[in-house]
Amino acid sequence: MNTRIKNILVTGGAGFIGSHLVDALLAAGHRVTVLDNFSSGSRENLQKHADLMVIKADIAQPLPASIIKTKWELIYNLASPASPKYYGAYPEETLLVGSLGVKNVLALVKGKTRFVHTSTSEVYGDPLEHPQKESYWGNVNSYGPRSCYDEAKRFAEALIYTVRRKRNLNTGIVRIFNTYGPRMDQTDGRVVANFITQALKGAPLTIYGDGTQTRSFCYVDDMVRALVAMGTSDAEGPINLGNPGEFTMNALAELVKKTVKEVRVTYKPLPAEDPSQRKPDITRAQKTLRWKPTISLKVGLEKTALWYKNQTVRVTHRITK
Ligand code: UDP
Q: Cα 105 to chain center, whole Å?
C-alpha cells in the first residue's frame, strides 16, 4: 500500500490481531477508524495518533450514522471473540457477531470498497484432512461447544460469497490459524498465553489431555504482513494464513520451558471436541500474496514472554456469565 488511504475501517481493531494491524496501517501513513465494543479488545492496545479515530460500537447492532455515511476504501472485519474460553462464555453474542454483524459491515461495502474478512481455521473443525487446504470442507459439529464460533464463521463465509456474487463486490476472505504475540490477553485461556504466564510465575504448565494434539502457531507480525497484503490484493480467497510449523502441546511446553523458564508440567482433562490436529497448507497465500511467515516459534515465544514480563496482568475479558 504505497499511496495514502484516507478511509480504512477496522472492526475489532482494539483486539489482539486488530490492534497490530492498525499499528501497521498507521505506520504506512494511512488514516484508520476503529470500531470495537471492547468486549474482548482494549483501548490500551491502541496508540494515540492523529490519523486514528476510535468508536465504541457493536457491529451486531445498527451501526453509527457516521460510519454508514462514510465512503470506505478498505474495510477489515476482525470483530469477534476468538478464544474458546471467551466464545464459550458468550455463545449467542458470538453467533450474532458472525451473522448480523457481518451483514451490517457488508452493507458498508459499496462500489470500489475492498473488504477483507477474517475467517478461521475453525471452519475445518476437527479436520480429517491434514494439512488443511482451502478446498477441504471441514468436519464440524453444528451443536457442540465450539459450534457458536465455527458455524458463525462458516455462515459469514457463505453470506460474503452470496453478497459478492449478487452485488459484484471486491471481497476477500482469509482463514486465520492460531496466532500469538504481544497483547494476546493473558487471561483468555489460550495455550501460548497460559504457558508463558505460568512459566513466568514459576507455576506448572497445564497440558490438556495427553498433549499429543497439534497446532501451528504464527507470530502476530507475520500475520499482520499477510493482512496488509490482502488489503491491496483483489484475491477473493479463501486463503489460509498461518505458520505451517506443527507442534504437539507437549513439544510447545518443552519449548516454553527452554525459552522462558524450566517449570513442571501438569496434565488436565481435554476440553470436549478439542481438535486433534491443525496445520495450514499455505501454498495459496504464498502464490497469491507472495507471503510466508518468517518468525520461528522459539523467537516468537521469546518476544512474547519479554512483553508479558513488562506487563501487569490485565483482564480485558470481563467474563461475567
Ligand atoms: N491447551 C493446553 N493447555 C492450556 C490451554 C490450551 O494444553 O492451558 C490446549 C488445548 O486443549 C488445545 C490447544 O492447546 O488443544 C490450543 O488451544 P487454544 O485454546 O490456544 O486454541 P484452539 O486452537 O483450541 O482454538
A: 17
pLDDT in tens, 176-208: 999 999 999 999 899 999 999 999 999 999 999
Task: For residue 94, give the nearest of 128, 59, 125 by alpha carbon.
Answer: 59
Boundaries of every domain in the chain: 8-179+218-244+276-294
Q: How many Å lie between the centroid of ligand 1 and the Cα of residue 54?
A: 32
Cβ–Cβ < 8 Å for 317, 188: yes
Task: Report which secondary-structure segment, H or E, holds 267.
Answer: strand 265-268
Question: What's the whole-model pTM score?
Answer: 0.96
pLDDT at res. 41:
95
Pocket of ligand 1 (CB under 6 A): 84, 178, 189-191, 194, 206-208, 213, 215, 249, 270-271, 274
> If DSSP codes are grouped into helix, strand and coil, which group holds residue 80?
coil
What percent of the chain clears pLDDT 90, i.e. is strictly above it?
94
What's the CATH number for 8-179+218-244+276-294?
Answer: 3.40.50.720
* Atom 13 (ligand 1) nearest CA: 191
CA-proximal residue: ligand 1, atom 1 (nearest): 191
